[in-house]
Amino acid sequence: MVNNQEANKDIISTMYSYTTDINHLEEENRLLRQTIEQLKQELSKFHKTPLLVAEIKELMDKNKALLHLNNGNEFLVSISSDCKDIKAGDTVLVEQKNLTIVKKIATQKKFNVEQFVIMEKPKIRWKDIGGLKEQIQEIKEVVELPLKKPDLFRKIGITPPKGILLHGPPGTGKTLLAKAVASSTNSTFIEVVGSELVQKFIGEGAKLVKEVFQLAREKAPAIVFIDEIDALAAKRIEIGTSGEREVQRTFMQLLAEIDGFKNLGNVKIIGCTNRKDILDPAVIRPGRLDRLIHLPLPDKDSLKEIFKIHTKNMKLEKKLSLRNVINAMDGFSGAEVRAAVTEAGYFAIRDNRTLVKEKDILKAIEKVRRDEELESTEHLHLYG
Predict the structure, then answer these.
(1) Which of 129, 291, 339, 378 is geometrically suited to a Cys-Cys bond with 161, CB 3.0 to 4.6 A?
(2) What is the domain range of residue 24?
(3) What confidence tier does 2 reach under pLDDT thresholds 50, 70, 90?
(4) Do 124 and 72 share a structural domain?
(5) Please, how many CA atoms are within 13 Å of residue 375, restricted to the half-sphere of its CB?
(6) Do 219 and 237 fall within a single domain?
(7) Structurally, how many domains does the chain consist of?
(8) Does 283 share its domain with 319?
(9) 8 A C-beta contact, residue 331 and residue 342
(10) Phi-psi region of 131 (alpha: psi -120 to 50; beta: other; left: phi over 0)
């Protein structure tokens, strides 16, 4: 009897173990089937032809549209019956083979524009700029005053310029002036470099220009400072390469944005160039950057002002001859004066001195002049 009971227990235990194994195997089998199904779905994705992103330039009728691709090409294409409520300017997905429009998608920024511009609230004051009294007065009248007292212009009935063009040799204070007027009006300073815009954003330059000005409106009052504007706004020639076409598209977008501003708006545009002679007349015609402000190399009186500004925190020897220093700096730009003062400080540091002597400054002037001549020679060798 006891043996029969033990035998039954063994049978029950074996059956339970067998049932448990079956359940475990079924669960594993179910998980494997799910995994295989997921892998099949993933594999099918790899076999699908990707869709292109394009922009509707113009609707021809209910079933046809003029499509603009990112490479600049345009095609007359069909619109899928499932794709409804599309209009010019919409972003859509199209098939690669026949470019049929299959779906409208939400327009998104290609990039965050704030990553590609220098945006700041400058702290530079007018008194930090030397030797540009006439230019400072003019920029105050055409940029600062309209931003601070727009009602005054409305009452008088005159229209201030939308923007100005600062032109002159390198290092004469163009960027400083733009930052100073942004500081005096408590405006956001948005700096864009024209050459980088063209080189880095082929295919996207016009969109970036549009987004820069949209950012300026959002951050208003704002100063949009376009450095090296000649890279974008040079005189138009016969358009040949895709790169030249891209520059022209970007330039036309810039003109469109300037034209779009209200005259008494709280966004001002300041262009900057060392080569005014190559600018397209379209950008400096009345109603655009029509106030031209020339920044020449400083004369001796201006050099003296600039030198005093940059040495105000330095300990200079009492017997220093300012006349000798200024004569040695003849032909220097403001940036070169600053470089010479900094270099003179290094000469004093090397001799373990806190007092800067005249000989330090004269040696620094020679070093800066020599470095400039060497750089000019290398430039001529590479590009001359």
Answers:
(1) 291
(2) 1-48
(3) very low
(4) no
(5) 6
(6) yes
(7) 4
(8) no
(9) no
(10) left
